[in-house]
Amino acid sequence: MNRMADASVRKLIEAATEALGTDTGRLDAEVLLASILEKNRSHLHAWPEKILPQETCEKFQQLVKRRVCGEPVAYLTGQREFWSLALAVSTDTLIPRPETETLVTLALGKIPADRCLHIADLGTGSGAVALAIATERPGCRIVATDVSAKALDCAAGNASRLGIENIRFMQGNWCDPLPREPFDVVLSNPPYIEEQDVHLEQGDVRFEPRSALAAGVDGMDDLKRIIACAHPCLREGGWLMLEHGYNQADRVNKQLSTQGYREISSHRDETGLDRVCMGRK
């Protein structure tokens, strides 16, 4: 993009779309400009000829340059929507993805709306899964854990901003910080990518914390740990639910069976890929 003085919304969006040169270029440009203006995208569509001051134009151009270099839009705006919740994200957290809503949907199917169940979200990151569950089941008690203090700060900040009070955030590795009381549901979206996967060096993923993505040679290290540690934390009849990679369902199910879980099943996301396995104690 050439440097602009005062320019219209339309001109800025068109120039940025050309500079980005991707299928999502226009959408990315609109999201970035709307974020700077603290408006939604419909405002841009309603006022395309509105002239924006040079300071705004320059700030927008800087964000577009960073996006051209591959930085995720969510990190540039500091926000990502998940389950209709506007969540703050940072480079200390994984960016919530639509496929993880499959995990939330399945969990809600096991959590009656009229009961107060005890639920754990392991490796909560930005808090996306825990916050979605807490919103839909306000009578439940939720513990969200993460080994990263910075990630927990982000998650707790999201909860505070959204006015969600039925979550406790506890620092530690997977099940380690959980209180010694039985849980009805334990769920997690852990790292599950193979550590040598070429996709870790491509696209938005390059900027996300590697510790939240990769898990050993076959991507199963953390899934195995959670399957083992969650069993003694569950009450009899409690459920463990895990998001995993598209090609890991059989291996996850085998681990669940080996650890003594029953009623094991696999579930696909909206794109038709295997995404979540669950088992019952």
Architecture blueprint of SSEs:
Elements: E1 7-8, H1 9-20, H2 25-37, H3 41-46, E2 51-52, H4 54-68, H5 73-77, E3 79-82, E4 85-88, H6 101-109, E5 118-122, H7 128-136, E6 141-146, H8 149-162, E7 167-171, E8 183-188, H9 221-230, E9 234-243, H10 249-258, E10 262-268, E11 274-280
Parallel strand pairs: 5-6, 5-8, 6-7, 8-9
Antiparallel strand pairs: 1-2, 3-4, 9-11, 10-11
Tags for this model:
single chain, 281 residues, alpha/beta, Helicase, Ruva Protein, domain 3, Rossmann fold, 2 domains, seven-stranded mixed beta sheet, two-stranded antiparallel sheet, 10 helices
Proportion of β residues?
A: 15-25%
Written as H for each helix and E for each strand, in order along the chain, the element string is EHHHEHHEEHEHEHEEHEHEE
User: Percentage of helical residues?
Assistant: 25-40%
Main sheet makeup: 7 strands, mixed
Report the mean per-residue pLDDT as an integer: 93
